[in-house]
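Fold these two proteins, one after the other.
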Amino acid sequence: MRPKLVLFGDSITEESFGDGGWGAALAHHFSRSADVVLRGYSGYNTRWALRMVEKAMDGVCVEGKPPMAVTVFFGANDASLADRSSGFQHVPLPEYLNNLRAICSFLKERWPSTVVILITPPPIDEEGRLRYPFGDNPSGLPERTNESAGAYAKACIAVAKESGIPVIDIWSKMQQFPNWEKIFLRDGLHFTAGGNRVLFEEVVERLRNAGLSLETLPADLPLLYDIDPNDPLKSFSN
């Protein structure tokens, strides 16, 4: 049975199997070694994610075999400003910290051997959010700011450190590149193909650091070059 990599998060996770998506890239990368399972919920914050994490993980563990890894990617919606158009998604920073801790604890208590990887909320291009607002925006102000996203990113990193689990600081990583606002974000929040590529590479690196890579994971059934051309069926006798 192939091991499973579960992607748990908000809309950036839900749409990750689209063209050029980071989830699709992971499925391709591990095409003969692991199954990538999508658990993305557009618009969700950590308050809602904590409420339904148990239900979301139903069916992930088959025949008692836990997933090899779970990515947890929430915070972009929590960081929405409380007094603007997406205020109903806002979660105060202290609660965000506690919710992340609880989600990670749930996963580790349920599956102690599973690698849990936290991903910070991404940076925000406020100009892009004004051009692509969510719903009506009578204030004329972006419903998210990069400053707020950065505060939640730092909180996510703090939870990872105190919990001893890997973290991807995508907020800082993307901002290392010139013109990141347009290269990596298509609407000030969601990823372009370039943004998806950055996150894909970061996830592969964290998995490799945890001992999960194409070199360490066995292929599902014999590879073509391992099949004896003079007696092909011999490779399937075990």
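Now the second one:
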Amino acid sequence: MKNIVYSIAVLLIVSCNVTNTKFATNSKDYEVYLSPHQVETTSKHFELWNSKIKPDSVQLLSFPNIAGEYNRFFKKTGEITYLKKAEKALVKAVEIANMNKAGYRRALARNYISQHRFKEALTLAEEASNIGGGKTETQSLLFDVHMELGNYKKAEAYLDSIKDMSSFGYLIRIAKWNDYKGNLDTTITFMEKAMAKAESSKNKTLLLWSYSNIADYYGHAGRIKDSYNYYLKTLELDPQNAYAKKGIAWIVFSYEKNGKEALRILDAVTENYNAPDYYLLKAEISEFMNNEVAVIENMDKYYTAIKSEAHAYGDMYNAYQVEFYLNHTEQYEKALNLALKEVMNRPTPEAYGLLAQTYYKMGKYQAALEVVENRIKGKTFEPAILYKAAEIYKANNKLEKVDALKQELLGAVYELGPASKNEILSL
């Protein structure tokens, strides 16, 4: 009898401990980072180099320095105009450079990657390779571009060519490669090695990159507390980091189902940060909260930002725009044209996922199935794409394939959002 009582007592203690150790966010952790702030879009460094640029200037060093400052302003504000100004400065540097020609082309290629101008980036990367100099930097760039373009065999070859386990650049790329292959544990192992190198170097740029990316990977792995802590570490280094605040907002929304608090965080972000996709996230949260007025308001803000003549987003928001046309305006022909364009720009599983989703929405189930079977199946582990594939399998009465995906999707509810569980179960 004593043993039974003792066993019950132990079970109660263990149960209490499990309940008490369940992770929860605390607004006191991040409140200080939500305060209104003035975004600085100038600096002594910027003014110094900008003053050297005159009409028909050949002050070569001024242009890459100015481009670097514009790029920094873009990251702080989300304003596309700064990215375009950085492009203009780098184009000028490429035009007039007699030395470091490869380096300036690599810098312009990176700018084009940010603008989703991947084919132009590839051209510049290949030019840099032909010029020579900075071989490892160019091969790293070629890996990055080919990954974006879906040329995975070429990307793997360039990854092999820069193999160096002591290199931060190699470690983050082998992590990305394993993420693409669906090897999340291996991805995290390599990313942790890269983070350790960043910490030993005390390089702020590398630390910010490491902390924000490891936070993402921990979230994918269901390690929500670790994810949250590394977003906070990102903010300790850069209190205005919009990406980290967005990550915390997602945890609050998807893990804790606290839409009101998630919106409060995002409202603070969008006071000074102007990336259109933040409005789409706010619309998603508002929809979960059954606030149709807020959904419409945020969709309007997104559309206004995308179409504003003051902006020049180009192809940066094609994927978002396809979703917008399909799910909110039901302009299926516009969605189809844009999805086909995206496939031409970058024939990745993600782009083909948009095309398959468009055919599905148009009622062209067989066409959607062909895209899934030929361009998506076995080529991606992204939950959002696999969910759409499951919908298409169901529409084509391939129920055994739906069942095969269901369990995997139920393990990705955090990534897909709190509304996804019922949607998955209803497949």
